[in-house]
Amino acid sequence: MGQEIGxxxxxxxxxxxxxxxxxxxxxxxxxxxxxxxxMENSTQENSMTVDVPYDGLQNVVIPEFQDLGTRVGQQFxxxxxxxxxxxxALDQAQGFAESVAxxxxxxx
Length: 108
What we know:
Strand content: under 5%
Distance between the termini: 36 Å
Order of helices and strands: HHHHHH
Structural class: mainly alpha
Number of domains: 2
Number of strands: 0
Helix content: 40-55%
Shape: globular
């Protein structure tokens, strides 16, 4: 992404490996340390502004997580654009999530 549209377009804190890319390391030197510290030290207790009904942070460390977010977002965009119903989009998004979950042994 950085080579195609510019390193500054990468969102800070999205991947630890991003900070190992020399061009991004140079670009991010003013904010890399606090960003990486935050990534390393975030816990549910120090990261939430309101109580939530689940344990954990929004940092799922499986390769499929980013793709799942993209695919679910596309379904929601299609519903907003009127290309499918909200129920169709939700059903498809749920199917994507269940497929990823099955890959990792969840049988819920």
